[in-house]
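for the record, two folds in this file. i put them one after another cuz i was lazy. first one right below, seq on top, C-alpha cells after. the second one comes after a little note so u can tell where it starts
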Amino acid sequence: MTVTPRRKNRPFLLRPPLIEWIRVALVHAEHRCSPIVDSDDVRQTARQLLPGLDCEPRQLKLEYCLQSFKCLGAEAASMKFQMDLGFKMLSCGRADLIHTATQLLGAQGVDTMDDQGMTPLMYAASGGDEALVQMLINAGANLDFCSVRNPSVHPSSRHWVALTFAVLHSHLSVTQLLLEAGADVEGAVLLDGRENSAETPLQLAAAAGHYEMVSLLLNHGADPLLRMHHGSSLPSPLYEEMNCFSYAAAHGHRNVLRRLLLQPQQRKEDILSLEEILAEGVEETPIPMGFPVPDCSKAIPKLCKARMKALQQAAYYSAEHGYLDITMELREMGVPWRLHIWLESLRRAQQLSRDEVIISLLTEFRSIRSEDYTPELVSKGIPLMFNMLENSKDYVITKRLASVISHCYGFSAVPAIPPIDVTQSTQLDLHFLNNREMSDVTFMVNGRPFFAHRVLLMSVSERYDSFVCLSTLPAATLCVSPQTMMRSLYCGGTEGLTVSLSEARKLLPAARFFQLTGLQRYCEIKVSQSLTLDNAVDIYHTTGDLYRFCEGFFLKNMEQLLSREDFHRLLFCASGQEQFCTRTGKWYSLGLDQNQDGLLKNLEAALINRLYFLHTGCRE
C-alpha cells in the first residue's frame, strides 16, 4: 500500500498583516452601509490581498441595500427610498421615466447627489454607458457639476466631474460625447479662475498613458501646463506642483510626452511668477535641439521658459522613477542637467550596464554649474564614481570618470606644503663642520671618518644619542652625503641651503629617520615643486610623507596620468582585478598592495575634503 505524503506547502508564503485585513474588510462593510463585518466581507478582502485566490465576487442582495435604513428616522428613510428609486429609474436608461424620476429626486433633479457624492451622470460616465450619458445630457444634466464639500467624498476626488470619471475609466467615446456636449475640458479644476487640488482629466490620461485620450483632450483645448496644487509650502521637489509632463514622465509614457510637446502654446507662458523667477535665477535656458517624433511630420515648437521649467520637472520625475530613456530624451531637447537628475541617471545607467549612456552622462558633467553642487555630490556622487572607476573594464568610461574627477577637484593649484619655522637652541660655526679640532665624536661613513660634536647632535635629535656611542651612522643614511645633512645642523636651519631634486629625494629619508623636522619639510617642499607627470608615481612610492600633496596632484591630473602604465598599476593595485594597459592594449591582473586601504579610497577621501573646502553648497 502506497501512502501519499501530505503536502505541507503553504499556498501563500507571506500573508498580509492582520491590521491590513481589518482595514480592507471595514471598507467593504462601509460600502454596503453595514456596521458589522460578515464572512463575505472577509472573502472579498481575500480576493484583494491574496493574488490568484478564486473567490466569488459579492452578489448584491436586498438585505444589503436595506441595512442603512435601520438607523434612520421615518422621514429620512422615506426620502432615501425616493432617492434610490429615482436613481434606479434614471439608471435603467428609459427616457419616459425621466420626468417621474426628477420628481422623486426633488429640486436638484438629475443633478442630485447620493450619499457617496455621485450624480447619475457620474455613474453613467464611469460605467461607460454612452446611451445613458446622452439621455442625461438631453435631460439637462449639469456637465460640470462636482461636489466641493461633501464629507462622503474623498478629498482627492472632491472636485471630479463626469468627464473626470470617464477619463479615469478610459471610456474614450463617453469622453468625446461629453466634450462635444460642452463639458469643460479641465473638469472642475478652475473654480472662480483659481486652480484647486484636483487632477485635471488630461493629467489622469497622461498618467495612465492613454495616447488617444490625451490627443482627444488636447484637441479640445486642454492645457498641459495646468498644475495640481498639493497645498504644501515645503520647497522640496517631492512637493512640487505636478503637471501633465511630470505625470507622463513619472510613469514612463514616452509617446504621451511627445504628444504633449506637440500641443501649440495657448497663453503667454513666458510670464513667470515671482517665486518661479527667484527659483530660476539668472540662468539662461539653452536653445532646445530637435526632438524626434515617430510617424509624425510636425515639428515641435520652440520651448518657452514655462514649458522648459515643466520639462525640467519632468526630467526629475523620470530620473526618480528610473526611466532613463525619457531623461536622456529630454536632455536631447536642451533641458539642462541638475545634479540630482544627473546622479540618478548615472546610477540607473550603471545598473542597466548602458555603457553608451554612461559615457554620454560623464561627458556632459561639465555642463552642471559648480554653484549647483549639493551635499548629495559628496555623499552619493563621489562614492558612486569611484566605485565605477574601480570596477569598470571599459577604458573609455575610465577616462571619462577621470576627467569628471579632475573637474570636481578644480582648476586651481594643489595646495602647497606650508613651511615650518624650527629654531635650534644650539648651533656652531661652519668652520667646525667635519673639522678634527674640538671634535668629540667621530663617525665612520663608508670607511672614512666624519668629525662631529656631541653637544650639537644631542640638542637637535634624540635619535643621535643611540649612534654617538657606536660611532657609526645607520645604513639608511649612507645614500646621502653626511656633509649636506650636517650643514643644516651647524647653520641652525635650512636658510641658504641649496640642494638639487635628486639630493632632496636622497636627503629626505635621512631627515625623517633622524627626526630633523626643518630639514624634512625643506626637502618635501623641494620635491613637491618638482613634481611632474613623469616622476609623480616614483615620488609617491619613495617619499610617503608627501602623500597628501601627491594625491592632490593625482586628482588634478588623473586623466593625463591614466595613459601611464605605472599610474594604472598604482591606482588599481588594491582592487585585485584586471585593468587595461594602454601601451600593450591588453588587460592584465593586478595584485594586492601592502596598503590595505588602497589609493582609490585615499583619493576619494581627499576629493571629498577638497569639495568641502571649495564649495559651500556641499557643506549645507
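(here's the note) second protein begins now
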Amino acid sequence: MNDRKQELKDRILTIAFTEWAKTNFMKMSLSLVTAKLGVTKPALYRHFRNKDDLLDAMQQRFSLDVSTAVDAFVSNAGREKSAENNFARGIRAYFRFLFDFFTQKPYYCSFFLFYFLKKAAQEHGQGLLMRYPALIDFFRKILGLPQPKNGNFRIERLARFINLTGFFWILRLYKGGRKKDCNHESLDFSRRITEKEISAEMEQAIVFCINGYFPDLSENAVDYGIVEEKAWIGREEMLEPDRIFSAVESVVSEMGWAEASVERIAERIGINKSSLYFYFRNKDEMLLETIRREQEQMLKLVQQRVSMFEGSVERLYAFFVAVVSNIGNNPTLLTVLHWMHFQNIGLTLPQKDSDRLRKEFEDLRFTVTTAPASRDDKTEETIFLFMFFLLMSEMGLMSAVKAGKKKDMDGLRQLFELFRSGMTGAQKEKINAVDY
C-alpha cells in the first residue's frame, strides 16, 4: 500500500473512533465518517468492505496502540527499578500510565467499553482485557512473587482486578450528569477533563486498589462453605423463561440497544415483526418490561440471601455469591443494563415501578455494606456499583457459575479477598502461594 492510501486509511480509522465515540457507538453510520472526511462511500469501500471490516480494523489499531504503550511503560518502569521493587509505587506508576492513556485519547475509553460489553455478551467475560506478558510480569515483580510453575492464572486475576479498578474510576471522569429521561448518570466522552479531576479520581483508585474496598473487614474470617451453601441461587428460583423477553435480552446484550432492531428480535424469536406489535407498542416498551421483570426478581432473591446473615463480612460475601449465581442463571441481564448505561438510553420506567426498584436497590445496598465513618454515602454507592462491574467482568472465569453449579469456588473466593483487602492482602498472602 502506498503512502497516500495508508494515510487515508489511517484518517478513516481516526475519524471513525472520534465520531462514533461521540455517540457512545450508538450511531455507527459510515455516512458520519465520509461526511467528516469529505469523501464518498465508494472511496471508503476501497479500504474497508463494510462497517464490520472497519470495526475489526479499529480493534486491531486499538490493540496495537495499547500494546505499544504497555511495552513502553514496562520498559521505563524496569529502568527506574523503584516501581518494580515496591508494589505501592508500582501501582501508582501504572495508574498514572493508565489514566494518561485513556484521558489523552477518550475515544479509546469509549471504544474499550463498547468492546468490553460485546465481549461480555459473546464470551461471558473471557478475553475482556488483552493479556500482555510483559505487564503480567511487571505485576508479578511488584508483588514479589516467584515465577509460577503452573501458569499465570492467579496473577492474571490480580492484573484484571488492577485494570478494572483503574478503568472503573476513569469512567467516573466522564459522568455527564443525569438526563431528564434516564434513571442513571450518562457518560459523556467529549467533556474536557482537568488535571485536578484526573488526580482526584486516580488517588481514589490507588487507595482502593492497594487497601481494598473494605479494609476494616480484612481480618474477619469467613466460613466460605456455609455462606456459599445458603446464598447460592438455583435455577429453579429463576423466572420462567419467556421467549420474547429472552430474545430481547439476547439481542441487546450482543449488539447494544441501538443496533437491536425489532426485526432482529423477531428473527431471534422466530416470528414476523408485526406479531411483536400485538404485545408491545415499540422496542422501548419491550426493554422496559424486560428490565422491570428481571430486576425485581434479582433484587428480591439477592436481598433474601444477604438478609440471612448477621455479620458484615458474611453479608458482603453472600452478595457476591448471590449475584454471581443469579448472573450464571441469566448472564445477559447485567450486560443489557450496562449497555443502557454506556449508550445513555433514555428510557424511564413508570414512576411507581422506578420508585419501587430504587428503594429495593437502596435497601439492598444498606443491607450489604456498612460504610466506614470516613466514607460518604456517594462513595459507598459507587463502590456498590463497582461490585456489579467487577463480578460481570469475571463471569467467564468461573466455569462453575456458567454451569450453574456450586463447585470449585476458589476463583470467587480470591476475587472477594481482592475486593475487600486489595493488593495489600494479596501481597501479604502471596495469593495463598497456590500455583507456585
